[in-house]
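Q: How would the structure tokens look for this protein?
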Amino acid sequence: MQTDIEIARNTRMLHITEIAERLGIDPTDLEHYGKYKAKLPLTLYDRNKNRPDGKLILVTAMNPTPAGEGKTTVSIGLAQALAKLDKKVMLALREPSLGPVFGVKGGAAGGGYSQVLPMDDINLHFTGDLHAITSANNLLAAMVDNHLFQGNALRLDPERILWKRCLDMNDRALRNMMIGVGGGNSGVERKEVFQITAASEVMAVLCLASDMNDLKRRLAAISVAYDLDGRIVTAGELHAEGAMAVLLKDAICPNLVQTVEHVPALVHGGPFAKISHGCNSIIATRMGLKLSDILVTEAGFGADLGAEKFLDIKCRTAGIWPDAVVLVATVRSLKYNAGIPKTELSVPNTDAVRKGFSNLEKHIENMKLFGIPCIVASNRFLSDTAEELECLHSLCAANGALFAPADVFADGGNGGLELAREVLSALETGEPSKTSRFMYDLNQSVEEKIRSLADKIYGAADVLILPEALEKICAFEKLGFGNLPICVAKTQYSLSDDAKSLGRPQGYTLTVRDVYLSSGAGYLVVLTGTIVTMPGLPPKPAAESIDIHEDGVIEGLF
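A: Here is the predicted structure in token form.
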């Protein structure tokens, strides 16, 4: 079989105007970025806002493993399969970050015959959205340090600057540093921390904003520092929101592309799910719901992170709710959760499938807590046996979940027809799920919200909030931020806060080590475990295998 980039290169793409016309979009509405990419204006939603929303399908997964689950690939393949069944369908996906592309994870444009195209552009600079977010983030950082240098009229405490610089690259050397070294015209010397752009609050703000005015309001509300009296100072007090919004004037508009089989896709925004809310933009999702009869979207990492945040944060903010959820699993990942070494995952082992099912079982239970019809999609690998798939099917049925294998990597939409039919069946026969069932009420205390997620979603026996984190929670509640949703930063590899605890951990204590305020995004970030916001490169980065030929052909992207 051809590599991902070979499949992408050999696909005959349609001009983006043809893709737009399939959605009833006038070509004059497009802001072109070449032949195959375009931005859609915000006014397009306004002109279609009285149309009824299409059905919303959320694709999530069990906890990710080194064996790979292929959530984005299944999302794309499902959309292509629905299109083959004559449904007017669209995708709403996140944009890749350059950090993982050149690190260990690779791109985020799907794989095989279920990709969004042009794959190489999407995985690289695309339409420049992440660069704009980086610039807006760092403009605010520059204005903070300039304010310190120019007399500090707001009396910012140099030891309590909250705002961090960012870069869209994995670079551990930027995790801790000193800036303004030497004083004088070099500025005020202080400690600084970089984070990756996908972890920037500007990214989260862009993806949760409903329009330009809401974007500016959220940017102005960003907390940048404490003053010497302990009061929070915002970006609005530095008069930074206008200039930041100018840098984001194009980035706020969704990007229209296509799949290998020419299904329209909106690829917009890309916050990380283990640090931020892990969902594409509300603007893209709302626009897709107006332009299609079925919109397939995804949330980052496992259902304990991306799906929970999609439902408790994004849906609460946007006033939307999914009609069905597809939970992606693989036979190989189930075996891994049973303790089978990665080198032996291709060996048939029905007992390991049964044992490792405990991880998937908890995610199925969680989707039931939210009251959403659930379909398990088994993303197939060549090593999967009929006995293993039948075992998985039986386990899903016993837990009240529909089941379908998906062979969308090798066969595109044709490989997802069985899954598509199960999804349509759930939409037609399932109980209406538009009534939101959140895991906590906003009027609960911050600690009660944390305990609710720990108990209901992660399966923890108890919660330990370290003294420094508890002190911050009390301070935020006194400042009036206690009624915000919470966004838990947690390892993606386990239901618990211990990445090595596979399957369905029980009897453990979830440890909260820090809490910080994302007042622009509108939530409190709760840090567990050893989460870092600036990843590093692995011993052998993917960048070592990426190259470009004299004729401009790229190789090595995946």
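The chain has 19 helices and 25 strands.

Residues 129-149 form the longest helix (21 residues).

Upvote if useful.
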